[in-house]
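Lab channel / #folding
Pinned by the channel admin:
"Please post every new chain as: sequence first, then the structure tokens as a reply. Keep commentary short and put observations after the output so the thread stays searchable."

First post following the new format, from NK:
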Amino acid sequence: MKRFWTWLKKHKITYNIVVIVLVFLGLAVVSFIAMALGTRHSAKRTVPDFVGLRLGDAEYFAGRRDLTIIINDSLHVASYPGGVILDQLPKGGVVVKPGRKVYVTINSVRQRMVAVPYVAGRSLRQAKNMLETAGLTIDHLEYVEDLATNYVLGEVVDGVEVLEDSLVVHTEMGNGVTLRVGVAPNDTATSVPQVIGRSLHEAKSRLWESGLNVGEIEFDGDMDLSDRNRAKVYQQSALVDEPLSYGERVSLRLTVDAERIESAIAEMELQIMERERAKMEADSIAKAEQRLLDSIANAEKAMQKQAPQTEDNFFF
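Reply from TO:
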């Protein structure tokens, strides 16, 4: 080896080339090692499903897999215990590198309190928007006879009536408010809106604005909070444009299956087209019948006018 280096040093050009090659090889090895250490290039971890676990348990299991739990948000869902994880990103089953952060949404022990706005005297649409701005929702629409339709006459939350001159009423964010709404004596029915293909929030909003209550809500399959947020309506219990009495309920079914949603939208559009065609045919038949009746009536009038002239000619 010594003789090789001695020979190499005597040939300067070859020596320089060998040194440069060795330096590049050394840098490549160092870079590869640094990358492997920094990103753990060769290691992989499968993210567990933390939804439904308490935060402490999730952090324990995450630590064993070299993952880190980060609280991204908190919500209050009454059907879940406080402190459990409602949603996570990335989802359970996703393969990631060690050290990856898993962002979670946890269920708070209690929702924060908000002031209930006074909405009596407003239109139903205005009242709904004011409640949503305050972080509240509509629980039930109760219709009573009044001079005008869809104007709010009163409101009740947690069994307490909200009055204009009373103390400010507070309730937990997300709670529903019962609205007492007027309906004119001659205004008995409303049309069912089209909510297929809409999110649950959009569907509820459209039903309330139409003066209808939300009935049963069903989700297909076992959905977590994230799936429920992106689910769309594919079934509604009343047909689009069907007349219903104010305050009646419309039940909804939701899914995350895109094909089922698209199929439901196509079927609904076909039903609307068929109903419009049937209406046009019925209108056309009714107009034809009316024209026939008008023609018969005109013929009878003409005959009645001619009858006296015939008698006069007969006698004279």
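NK: The two ends are 155 Å apart (CA to CA).
TO: also worth noting, The mean pLDDT is 86.
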